[in-house]
């Protein structure tokens, strides 16, 4: 019985004692943060480069369409209408195409 109480007491004591952990050095954390920033910047640069290459292979009409849809998506994110009132007022409206009689 005494052994069981002694073991439970020792176990409880070990649980109650806080574990000591050594904090990272300030220089080490700063260096880590700097590496993370560089990695994030390089990922952004790679993404921009890949987008530029992708657009280079597209026709002019397709590039315009992609650019317009990206602009509309950004406006939707902000909670605005996809097209501004200015664009709706002054942009030429595309009518129905006429069929040629041959």
Which secondary structure elements does this structure contain, and how are they paired or packed?
Blueprint: H1 2-16, H2 26-56, H3 60-77, H4 85-90
Query: Could you list the spans in which at least 5 consecutive residues all have pLDDT below 50?
Result: none
SSE-based structural type: mainly alpha
| C-alpha Rg (nearest Å) | 32 Å
**Beta-strand content estimate:** under 5%
Count every beta strand, where a strand is a DSSP E run of 2 or more residues: 0
Number of helices: 4
Give the % helix: 55-70%
| Mean pLDDT over all positions | 82
Order of helices and strands: HHHH
Q: Kindly report how far apart the N and C termini lie.
A: 108 Å
| Shape type | elongated
Largest sheet: none
Question: If you had to describe this structure to a student in words, what would you say it looks like?
Answer:
The chain has helices spanning about 1-15, 25-55, 60-75, 85-90. It is elongated, with a radius of gyration of 32 Å. With about 100 residues, it is mainly alpha-helical. The mean pLDDT is about 80. The chain has four helices and no strands. It has a domain at about 25-80.
Quick overview of this protein structure:
This protein has 102 residues and is an all-alpha fold. The chain contains four helices and no strands.
Task: Please name the defining characteristics of this protein.
mainly alpha; 102 residues; single chain
């Amino acid at each position: 019985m005494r052994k069981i109480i002694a073991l439970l007491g020792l176990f409880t004591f070990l649980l109650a004692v806080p574990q000591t952990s050594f904090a990272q050095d300030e220089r080490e954390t700063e260096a880590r943060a700097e590496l993370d920033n560089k990695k994030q910047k390089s990922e952004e640069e790679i993404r921009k480069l890949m987008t530029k290459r992708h657009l280079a292979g597209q026709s002019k009409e397709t590039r315009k369409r992609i650019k317009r849809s990206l602009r509309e998506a950004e406006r939707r994110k902000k909670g605005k209408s996809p097209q501004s009132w200015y664009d709706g007022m002054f942009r030429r409206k595309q009518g129905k195409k006429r069929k040629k009689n041959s």
